[in-house]
Amino acid sequence: MNIWDPTHECMSRDELEQLQLERLQATINRVHKNVTHYRKKFTQMGIIPEDICSLADLTKLPLTTKEDLNLNYPYGMFAVPLREVVRIHSSSGTTSKPIVVGYTKNDIRLWSNLVARFMTAAGVTHDDLVQIAFHYGLFTGAFGVHYGAETIGASVIPMGTGNTEKQIMIMQDYKSTALVCTPSYALSLAYRMEKLGVNSKSLSLKFGLFGGEPWSEAMRSEIEQRLSLSATDNYGLSEVIGPGIAGECSHKNGMHIYEDAFIPEIINPDTGMVLPQGSEGELVLTTLSKEAFPMIRYRTRDITSLDYSPCPCGRTSARMKRVARRSDDMLIIKGVNVYPSQIEEAVFATALGETPYQIVVERADAMDSMEVIIEITDKIFDLELKKQRSFLEQVKKRINSVAGINVSAKLVEVKSLPRKDGKISRVLDKRKI
Ligand SMILES: [Zn+2]
Q1: Cα separation of 288 and 309, whole Å?
Q2: CA 336 to ligand 1 center in whole angstroms
Q3: pLDDT (tens digit per residue) in 309-355
Q4: DSSP H helical segments within 326-414, as ranges?
Q5: 164/366 Cα distance (integer angstroms)
Q6: What H or E segment, with its residue span, contains residue 203?
Q7: pTM
Q8: Burial level of 141, CB count in 10 A (0-12/13-18/19+)?
Q9: Alpha carbon 238 to chain centroid distance?
Q10: What is the 306 CA–ligand 1 centroid distance (Å)?
Q11: Which residues contact 95 (CB under 8 A, 6 or more apart)?
Q12: 427, 357 in Cβ contact below 8 A?
């Protein structure tokens, strides 16, 4: 069994905790000195860096939320001058402004090596051909995996998203051995192959590395069987680093968190209090080695639990359970994070005021789709059909520009959306994952 960085992945708990404490203290010193947001928060709470003498002291520090990142848009949370930043990425924010994250040269090296860990754990070696079917752009997914695969010495095929038939042709002709994408896209590739009469056993695929959206054990078995590969889960989020926070080994019994780089905590999302070991709650992460964009106790909003029991693979870190739900209302549509508030903003801005609406999310043939249903108000009713159509076009365009996804939109009669106690539930998620 291959382990990319046995020194860090197989440390004894004592050694690991010593290293975590040293790195935590250095990080706290750095953010106190360089990031106004943290310095202000620490001062408000009467904390100085010297107060952090043990890992248990971590709970004295404030939690950081997505709203904090929004308030410090674009560069307020950076701990280094921009000239030291070599890469910028972003992720969706709760408002129409995205979250901007930055990486120094050392951060890119760290990130690549963390990704190399989960890719190695999934079975990828320098002999593999890795087809990356994530969107290349501001999102961290594609570039993170790309650099990680190159670090291992594998051959990268930077395919990007979409072009399903071309993806399949490339798999056949280039003999791709590893596929990286969202689990739902893996299933739609399988559907398309079956339609085209391509037998997955005739391909060279061995490994599927899937992340970016919630999935289930049932989906794993289906993907493994239909694509004839071994499927593993990995975890990451742009605000913390991107992919490379945790990943499954071949035992597929939870994702090993790279604890020398991140300290995980599980909190009660309502009270913010740390929960006892093994409890289910919201994952909070503190980065230990990042330079440009360190995060102190970041609330991921992902609900999971941590397992500290030994894993037969020899890695000693805690394993996090697959994330199946969130403590906020964020939706993941085709791997893109979407907040209902972004959709609402777009609908109201186009309708020039509040309008009853509902967001309906569905999954058919493994593809997610979102429809925005808007009740006709008097204002819209008075419009001619042509103008009603152009209103819907504008809504769709606006949603695409703030949330980065294509939706369908339709108008329905006044009071026809289902109401409970006079209220329309904003989101109807019909997906069975
Ligand atoms: Zn393991």
Answers
A1: 23
A2: 29
A3: 999 999 999 999 999 789 898 998 888 889 998 999 899 999 888 88
A4: 340-351, 378-381, 385-403
A5: 13
A6: none
A7: 0.91
A8: buried
A9: 6
A10: 13
A11: 70, 341, 342, 345
A12: no
Residues 111-163: tens digit of each pLDDT: 999 999 999 999 999 999 999 999 999 999 999 999 999 999 999 999 999 89
Distance 316 CA to ligand 1 centre (A): 8
- The predicted model gives 229-245 an average pLDDT of 97
At residue 111, what are phi and psi to the nearest 5 degrees? -60, -50
98: tokens are 């995205």
Ligand 1 centre distance from Cα of residue 319 (Å): 8
Q: Which two tokens stand for residue 139?
A: 């999102």
Cα dihedral value 5, 11, 13, 16, nearest 10: -60
- Gap from CA of 180 to ligand 1 centroid (Å): 20
- Measure 252 CA to ligand 1 centroid, in angstroms: 7
Centroid of ligand 1 to alpha carbon of 279 (angstroms): 20
Q: What is the pLDDT of residues 194-214, one digit of tens each?
A: 999 999 999 999 999 999 888
Stretch 165-189: mean pLDDT = 96
How far away, in angstroms, is 134 Cα from ligand 1 center?
Answer: 25
- Reported as a single tens digit per residue, the pLDDT across 378-402 is 766 666 778 888 999 999 999 998 8
Residues ≥6 apart with Cβ < 8 Å to 422: none
Each residue's pLDDT tens digit, 276-312: 999 999 999 999 999 999 999 999 999 999 999 999 9
Distance 79 CA to ligand 1 centre (A): 34
